[in-house]
Design brief:
Elements (H helix, E strand, L loop, with lengths): L2 H13 L10 E7 L3 E3 L4 E9 L16 E17 L2 E16 L3 E5 L3 E4 L2 E4 L3 E6 L4 H14 L6 E7 L3 E3 L4 E9 L4 E7 L6 E8 L6 E5 L2 E15 L3 E5 L3 E7 L22 E7 L3 E6 L15 E10 L2 E3 L4 E11 L15 E15 L2 E14 L3 E5 L3 E6 L4 E6 L3 E6 L19 H11 L16 H29 L1 H26 L2 H20 L8 H10 L4 H19 L6 H21 L1
Parallel strand pairs: 2-9, 11-20, 22-29
Antiparallel strand pairs: 1-3, 3-5, 4-5, 6-9, 7-8, 10-12, 12-16, 13-18, 14-16, 15-16, 17-20, 18-19, 21-23, 23-25, 24-25, 26-29, 27-28
Helix pairs in contact: 4-5, 5-6, 5-9, 6-8, 6-9, 7-8, 8-9
Amino acid sequence: MPLWIVIFLGLTTCLGIPGPVLGLDVDFEAWVDRTRIRQSEPLRLTLSIRSTERVQHMPAPQIDLSEFQVEGPSIRTSTNVSIVNFQQELTYIRELTYTLHPRRTGKILIGPASLELQGQTYQTKALVVDVAASDAPQTMAQDEETDRRSTGLADTLFVRARASRLQAYVGQQISVEYDLCFRTGLQNVGFRQVPSFSGFWMEEVFVAQSLQSRREVIDGVAFDVAPLRQVALFPTRAGIHVIDPLVISCDVPVRPGRRGSPLDGVFDDAFFGRATRTVVVRSDSIHLEVSGLPEKGRPDGFSGAVGSYSMQVESHPAEVTVGDPVSLRVTIEGTGNPDAIVPPAVQVPPEIRRFGPEVQADRHVANGKIGGSRTYEFILIPAVAGEFALDPVQFAYFDPDRGRYRVLTSPPVRLRSHSNGAELADQRSGPPRIGRGIETLGTDIRYIKPDAHRLGGGLRLHARPGFWLAQALLPLGFAGSLLYQRHQQRMQADGAYARRRRARGDAERRLRQARQRLAAGDNVGFHAEVQRAVLAFVGHRLSLAAAGLTQDRCVQVLHERGVSGELSRTLRELLDLCDYARFSGGSATVPEMTQTLDRTKRLIAQLEKVI
């Protein structure tokens, strides 16, 4: 093959320039990396979609993988270039790779997978995988550890689990962090098994979406350490708790040849397509000792809050008229489980009516510690005049750092109410009847709005024709939007339909470029744009590749479609004229090129009616 062809093909492939397409041809295949595995081993399933035309919106294949725990898929796209009969042919390849972990033993049927593309359905062959049982969970863990040691990964890859404390009280926060420590290249890192945290109320603090590593020296060795997960645990019962390991899977490169080679690591880059293998890595279990809260010294008002808290109580206003409200706000904030905070008891005299409370909650995480605040607002309405002293508000909690209970007590809340000159009936036995003041309030409203008698009159929308016209247009608008949505979906799914719809617009764009060439006096460029406009229009309307559409082929296709001989002759004459102007070296006049442009527009309009 000549060198210039090789260079041309390489440039078109790197730049993503599509070559001539002879129509969409799809091969849909599926395969697995092996057909016999143990239940503790991962399986790789690859779905390959090969097409002769680039599909902008490739739908996802449908496949039943309910017998497996699924990770992925990872997606890889590539382009294959070949030369057939001196014509460049491109094959677009899209591979989806799933990592599967069997849920059971025995023979498992995979597939067939199905793919809906441009109105056609493609299916792969069904696959059968034989899954053998592992000896036992403990043996499986030992096998994985032996596998890591045999490949030299035991000292270069592990998951570190750390707890902020190993002894705690019920309700006290324990922070657990999981870090991935590695000294080798990693790909496709994913969670395989997450602890259930049974016996704890758990809140997620951090979950890694991608590996963000830092350098850290562990036992004298430098590692890349990437945080994986951080959780806040609040024990719900006393006793010994065991947190199961966090299990992840990842792909590590298979290092060929002997270690210590001068080229060792040069080909680790993904550009060279280094082979990888999937390994499973688990953290150590964490054993926690949880003590119950002591009975000694437990206050009567204790509701289960554990942590460190402060309380603020305020009322406003301090002096009101009988029947007017007073806002009493109690704010409790600190570190600990905010859900364990309950409304404090607020005792009021029988002459005061209490409403509420309304609750405002706030939650935050600071330095890995869960905290927040609860604000309780009570509405107090005095029914008689006088001075009142409310009992202090108290909040009891357990301080785990000091190992004892604490009770927060506010100063007494004092209120003063005075009479407004009106008699309130049944002041002592019932709620304040503030409705007696409605007459004065109504006078104020009438003064602010003197034309209140006109409110709500006059406007009758249902009696106007425009109202019913708008109602009639609503279903038409809905139908139009539905049709437009279906049109867009068909444009994305049906390539032939999309090309037919774009044919006229593409031709008009090329003719506008031809007019610009005409204004610039570019005779060759003008006729080249006219010729491309006609051939591209025919190619789009008939789903043919314009790059391989010659004059004879164009006339032949029109004849096969039943186009009249006169229209075919007009097309041939126009293309002959363009060829002559491009290659003869002659120069057409401006009126002649203007006439050619008008002739092309009429031809395209006539072709649009018959093809």
